[in-house]
Every structure is written in C-alpha cells, then in structure tokens.
Amino acid sequence: MNDSAPDAAPNDKSGPSDPAGPLRTVPEATAYRATSLHADVVAFIEQLAERCAAERVTTLDVQTMGATPEGRQLPVLVLSADRRFTPEAAHAAADREGRPIVLILCNIHAGEVEGKEAALMLAREMTLGGFTRLATGATLVLVPIYNADGNDRISKDNRVIDLRLMDGQSGPDDGVGTRYTGEGLNLNRDYTKMEAPETRLLAALFGKWNPHVFVDSHTSNGSPHAYALTYDTAHTLLSGPPEPILFTRDRLLPAIEQGLLNRTGLRTWFYGNFRDNDDPTSGWETYPGLPRYGSHYRGLTGRLDILLEAYSYLPFEERVRATYEIFVEILNQVAVRGREIVAVCARAAADTVARGRAPQPDDVIGINYGVPRRKSDGSLVYDYPAYPLWKTEIAAWNTEEMRARKLTDGQLTYWKCDFLARFLPTTSVRRPRAYVFPAERGDVAEFLRAHNVNVTMVGERAGTRRIERYIVLAKEPTHSPDVGYEAREETVLHVRRETLDRELAAHDFLVDMAQPLANVAIYLLEPESDDGMARWGHFDDCEPGDAFPVVRILADALLSPPPRIKVE
Fold first, then answer.
1. Which region, left, alpha or beta, applies to residue 66 given φ > 0 means left and ψ of -120 to 50 means alpha?
2. pLDDT for 195-234, tens place per residue?
3. 3-state class of 184 per DSSP?
4. HEC assignment per residue over 61-111
C-alpha cells in the first residue's frame, strides 16, 4: 500500500484561495483582527450555498444538528463529490468504494476559534476553490460552530496571554468567546456525563453518521514548543477496541505529520506539555486518560479519532493557516488509506460483538485510571498518571529563551525526553455477557440510548439466572475539575462483588454486550468507573449496604431461554 499523499491536482494550492474574492470569512475581511459571530457563520454558509447553486456545484448539502439552549441553529455541512448526503448513502459508498466518512468538529471551546474559521475556508475551497478533489476521497461532515452560545460572548478579556501562567493566546485583537457554553458547561468534559444539550445533539449526530474518522479542533496554550500545531488520539488501549487507536497513533498521524511538513513546511507532533516547563528533559505529557475528554471517549467506540491543538502563542493568522492545512492533509491521507480505514473500523466492530457474544474470563476492560489519595483535610482526590510510551525529541527552544518565555522564535533545540502517554488502569472488570437493571430505572435506559447504546428488554430470557452483583460498602464525594463555571463533585462508590441466583423479569432492561458500543456501556454502567453513571450521580440513591441496581451476566449459556420455554 502506498503511504504517501496523493499527487496534487494542477489547481491545488498550499493555502486558501485569494481572500480578495467576494466570499471571505470575518478574519480574512478584517486582516485577522476579529473572529466570526454565529450570524457570520450562518451568513457565510448561506452565501456559499448560493454561489454553489449559481455555479452548478452539487457537492454541498447544508443540514443542522439542532439548536442550542439559546436558540442558535448548529449548521452541518456535508461535502461529497457524488452527493452522498445521507448516512445510508455515505456508508454504502464506504463499504463499496472504501470512501470513509470524516466528521470535523470545531469551536467546542468557543475561545478557540481557529477551527471554526478554517472549516469555512475548507468548505469554500472544496466547492469553489482549489481543493475540489478532496470531496472525492471521503464524505466530509463538517460542524464549524459547536459551542455557538459561548462563541457569541466575545470579549477582549477572554484568553488573554499570561506568560507567567503559560496561559492565553495571541489574538484576535477584537476578542473571542468563552471556554464554556452559555449555560456554563465545558463541552470537552461532558462526553460521558452528557449534561449539556449540545452534547446530546453531538451524540445524536455521531450515532446518525457513525463516522470512521472524527477530528476535534482546539487551540492549546501551556508549555513553549516549536510546533505550529500538535495532534493526538485516544491512549486508553486497555479500555477500547485497540486496533483503531493503534492505527491512528502509529500510522495515520505520522503520515499526516510528514505529508503536512512536505507540503507546507509546518512542524507538528503529538500533543503534550513539559512535565516541568523549566526542565525540557522532564518528559512530554499528554492529558488524563478519562473518557469525559472527546478523544478518549471515541477510543471506546472503535472509530478513529484525531485531536488538533493549534499553538496559541503564534499569531492568529498563522494558527488559522495551520489548522486549515492540517484539515487538508487529513483528507489527503484518509483518501490514500480509505479502504484500510473502513476495514479497521469494521474489524473493531465485529471483534467487539464477537467478544460480547462469548466473553472469555481473561478479557478485561479498564474502567478506572485514577490513583486515589487523601488531602490534609481527609478529602478524596485522584491523580491520573501518564507513564512513558516512547523516547522522543521535542522541538522547542534553548533553555534560556524558554525560561524567558520567548515562545515563537529563538534557537531551535530538540530535547530528548519520555513521551508520557501510556495509561494503566487501577481497576478493570471482566467483560460480561450482558447487564440487567430493573424496569423502574428507565432513566438509565434513556441515558444509555442517548450514548447510542442498544438497550432492550429481558423478554423471553426471563427466569432464574446466575448473576454478579455489587454491594455498596461506602460512598463519598471527590472534586470534579474544569467541568464548567460551577464547582462540581463526583460520587465515588466503594463496592464488593458477589455471585448468586436471581430471578430476572421479562420487563427488566437488558444491555447485550454483543454490540459495537459495548465498551461504552461497560464504562458507563460499572459502579467503580472513573467516568461512569455512578460517578456522575445517576445512582446517588444507593447507600452503604445496598445492592447496586445494575447486575452482570457472565456467560452466553445463561442468556439462553430456560428449558421450559425451549420445550414450548
């Protein structure tokens, strides 16, 4: 297989088309002093659609994923060379022709606006400009503005640079929106608890399209380095289907990095921060392995995930360009590997179903990566350590310039250190055959279905079954960092397991593990999960001594109809 990028078409360019034309984004029109309001995004899309209609360009379809709590519609642009504008048509093309579905999400943190602007430019270039060929290699589902309510709270006080704290960003001068939504929630800590209406809309879009590749665009401050942008993917190999994670980490992302460097000269590498900013040899460390973060959540789903983090200390125009160019390169490399990407996702889904249909005693799933400790006041807190994955060299500046916080130029230096991106669970569970919970817990079924998990009824499998259940030994709170404006506490349950016979009723809910999203269900339903339903208060009615209401069934034979039903 050829791992190089496809040859560029004669009219391909390394950057967006001449912004002097009539269709320009707000940054292009203001010399990058300002970013788009929601109304500007909608107006740009409307003008783009009108231009496409006038020029008989049929590769664009404008859809919506719903409205925010403040009533702003969230546009979805579907780009396809042969008008595969529905999930059914797009998946048929993927299965038959190896043309993956790529979903790009922008503006999840509304102060991080590069993706929003680059996405509009990308849509323009894929329809009217120099990159129309990109619509032939994949079906692109583009969400340019996700946190629309936070986006319109623009202020010059948001994301102001503070080099002492290594915080903030360089421009745009007229300000940006807020990190959180209009309701004060952090959407990139909401993937499992699903508290924000926007999160449920995105989950519905994800379930509808079931994309092979998900791209999440951010802007990152933190440690000084010499990359225009950093990227990442899921690292929780012991919790999700491993092949998509490894394929993305070891093959797709390095190819994107090299293709982008060759085509544009932009340096990129895996996301991280120096463990000690004054000691670049201390290690390059990624973020915690919790699925409340989008990348780790999607690692549970068996799809390919790419996190993008534009370097916030570069000028705004350079950040937009870097984001735009990596969007282009992702589509370049996905087109080259289309059949393989579709096959990787299909194998992961089939393997997950097969494992759930006949679970083995050594098939274990990591559900908690936290290391507990007590603060001086006795309260419980958790650390989420990352362990060395590789030896690497990080492009940055010499020590003197870094300590002086010279963040974008200086003497380029490659620092040898560990890449700290390996996570080891502190709690794991054997894969069950199914979970069962009482009919009166319809709220649990609704929540799982919002995560696209298939929930049915016990039905004809009712009867006495051998099950595992948990007994709650203790319950206590722990602090929940950076979930929004309001301080939050999570619920920690300490449990023990016991095995017994139990009568299952036909109207009880059943979550069969022979489904592609089984790993999502396991992480949500286990009481000791660090990001499950118990952690987010769904089972706060459980007290010490109570039986946890969700039970586990361990063997396929136990789900067979009882002998009486077989005879009848």
1. left
2. 999 999 999 999 999 999 999 999 999 999 999 999 999 9
3. coil
4. EEEEEEECCCCCEEEEEEECCCCCCCHHHHHHHHHHHCCCEEEEECCCCCC
Which SS3 state, helix, strand or coil, does residue 310 take?
A: strand
Q: What is the pLDDT of residue 339?
A: 97
- Cα R_g (the chain), whole angstroms: 24
Instruction: State how far the Cα of 227 lies from the Cα of 225, in Å rounded to an integer.
Output: 6
User: Rounded to 5 degrees, what are φ and ψ at 414?
Assistant: -105, 115
User: What pTM, to 2 d.p., does this model score?
Assistant: 0.94
- CA dihedral over 49, 54, 55, 59, signed as positive or negative: positive
Assign residue 463 a region: left if phi > 0, alpha if psi is -120 to 50, beta otherwise? left
Question: Distance (Å, rounded) from C-alpha 190 to C-alpha 194?
Answer: 5
3-state secondary structure of 281: strand
Which two tokens mark 515?
A: 């489904």
As given in the structure block, the two tokens for residue 428 are 């794991």
Strands, DSSP E only, in 320-386?
Answer: 364-368, 371-374, 380-383
The structure tokens 């001449």 sit at 18
Q: What is the enclosing helix (H) or strand (E) of 165?
A: none
